[in-house]
Prior knowledge:
The protein is built from nine helices and seven strands. The chain is of the alpha/beta class. The chain has two domains: 1-30 and 106-199, P-loop containing nucleotide triphosphate hydrolases (Rossmann fold, 3-Layer(aba) Sandwich); 36-105, no CATH class. The strands form two sheets. Strands 2-5-1-6-7 form a five-stranded parallel sheet, with helices on both faces. A two-stranded antiparallel sheet has the order 3-4. A hairpin with a 2-residue loop joins β3 (61-62) and β4 (65-66). α2 (35-43) packs across α5 (81-103).
Amino acid sequence: MKEARFVLGLTGSIGMGKSTTARMFRDQGLAVWDADASVHALYEPGGAAVPGIAALVPAAVTGGSVSRPILREALEADPTLFPRLEAIVHPLVAQYRRTFLARAPGDIVVLDVPLLLERGIDTECDGVVVVSASPETQMARLLARPGLDRAAAELLLSRQMPDADKRARARWIVPTETLEGARAAVRQIIKEIRGGLAPSHEGS
């Protein structure tokens, strides 16, 4: 019989501190799957998504890898490309995720996915963590990023599920106003899971 383990979904809106929180889970010894890193790997030379994207947007592939800026320009010019791009990328990312779940060690594993709730990937998890901060803190973090002004930041936010909706669907919320508060929340989540929360998934 396979040993049961807890699959923890980690998500949050842009600028909320999800990547920092993911590192905190890693620091506690948990295996973490990074959806964004998987997409980057698919776009690199030899990546499985490169041939499909080359057929879809030939100009977006230069030097054997996908140029994100060129691809983004193409998508903005022709929004009908979005579903066709997703049809190429999403199945490949899902395969990476399945491979991680099959091989990752430990009693708790983490799926770090920006669109965890939007894509329904929370159904693969035993519990969901949402990272959150005040709107003021979120905006300040976004404006500190190179090349991002308030209008661009607000556009990004308008395309995401509202923070309140994400928090409403979470089992746990990690407040990221301070590093100390986030670390304490991460440790508490792990303690609660190991203290007896029964997982519904088994380790593959």
